[in-house]
Design goal:
- Helix 1 packs across helix 2.
- It is built from 3 helices and 5 strands.
- The protein has one domain.
- It is globular, with a radius of gyration of 14 Å.
- The protein is of the alpha+beta class.
């Protein structure tokens, strides 16, 4: 699947989860349900994938975790908040700046 096809599938599965559960639950609830929905489509999904920080030539394991990594192509960061703010944007930009997820 291409990145666009994966994104469409994740969106549709996420919408299904949201329609079923509604708002107000913990992120972990939505994460588990989205993982389950995506698994039904036989795509490779990893939960809580470790993402090291690279500083100069040193790989630092400092606790970054991607909520879901789909087919090693698409990062899914789940938020259960009233509004996205700057810290959420900074988090995903940090993940995207990492060139390859190992």
């Amino acid at each position: 699947m291409t990145e666009n096809e994966l994104a469409k599938l994740v969106f549709e599965c996420g919408l299904q989860v949201h329609k079923t559960l509604g708002p107000g639950l913990l992120e972990s609830s939505y994460e588990e349900c989205l993982f389950y929905e995506l698994s039904k489509y036989n795509v490779r999904v990893e939960k809580e994938k470790a993402l090291p920080l690279i500083y100069e030539d040193v790989k630092l394991e400092i606790g970054y975790r991607v909520d879901l990594l789909v087919e090693n192509k698409l990062i899914v960061e789940i938020k259960s908040v009233e509004a996205i703010n700057d810290v959420h944007l900074a988090q995903i930009l940090t993940y995207l700046n990492y060139q390859t997820v190992s």
